[in-house]
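Query protein
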Amino acid sequence: MTERTGQPSERSPLPEKAATSETAEEASMAAEAVPAGPAPGASADGTAPPPASGGAPSEDGPGGRGPTDVLVQPPPPALSPPRPVGARRIWPRSFEDRLTSPLPGVRAMARLAREGAMRPIGEALAEEIPKLPFAPGPIPDPGTDTVSVTWAGHASWVVRIGGLTVLTDPVWSRKILGTPARITPVGVAWQDLPKVDAVVISHNHYDHLDAPTLRRLPRSTPLFVPAGLGAWCRKRGFTTVTELDWWEGAELPAAEGSSGAETGRGARVRFDFVPAHHWSKRSLTDTCRSLWGGWILTDPQGQRVYFAGDTGYGHWFREIGRRYSGIDLALMPIGAYDPRWMLRPVHTDPEEAVLACQDVGARRMAPMHWSTFLLSGEPPLEPLTRVRAAWRKAERPREDLWDLPVGASRVLEPA
């Protein structure tokens, strides 16, 4: 049965006169947006405004705030009931109303062509690419009650959670459309992967949704994808495709032996789709026809991993942290940010990634979305240098920054 659905009440309003992109995918993957003002209702830095005062009237008169006023934060809404896995749904034709910044138009692309700033200078490439961290090792087998992550490169992770093996935005191809070949090898050989129990996709850009990699999977592999992307997956033979809107979740049974089982249901791993400041496009005619976002993976014990996907910095991070408390690890993008006038709305730089990690309340952060494909103009090693400096400046414990080499792993021990 097909269900018609959508959540207009949760949508972020579209800025006035937002233009759709007139470029091909090759340009859209690198030059993804132009700067814009903050989302409606947000402050100048893109964050949500403070909650309204809930105290008694003050001496300052109407609208003033005296010393006895108390700021009241409303409780977060309950998580949505889990959606049926594999259910077919009907979505709006476009998700353009979810944009928080306009898409690039002709003027932006003309400026980009004049400046030619979407690739690092040759000297940086020759000097820094050989120094990029690459240290492949065995994938941990942490058991059913422990979480581990292995960075395969770019936004591709092997997440072991609840005894399941989950791939995020799997790209095992050497080259993707419109982009030079990867500058570091894939950190995990495909034949070394455990059985893949599920895949989560953040959005449909070619460096996150790679058809040649997905073809390597059994067609029965459960795919969790943004709203509007199910038809693309089913067309390629996948039989268990779950499309979710923002703030919706679905569940899979955890591996046998997992603790934290609920009475009568068994232990479950939950997959929640959350907002991101980004967009979608795969061809000249499908701009924003599918949604974009990140994923919260929660094991039966309540351990949480946040995969941010591809995103700029903005107000959504605080709301994600409010609704999903106790995030243990945030997988955050730190690269593909230069030039800022073009990429700020859709790609966090290292400093913004650290700020976003704080906004969602995550204890640990693992950087990603760098050291793999050359999508923008910053030197290859700069994201790592800057994220380490930003972490120190934020006075976060050094051991909680998991700045892994491509191919390396880390185990999240139970609390």
Notes: Residues 93 and 289 are 6 Å apart (CA to CA). The first helix runs from residue 25 to 30. DSSP finds nine helices and 15 strands in the chain.
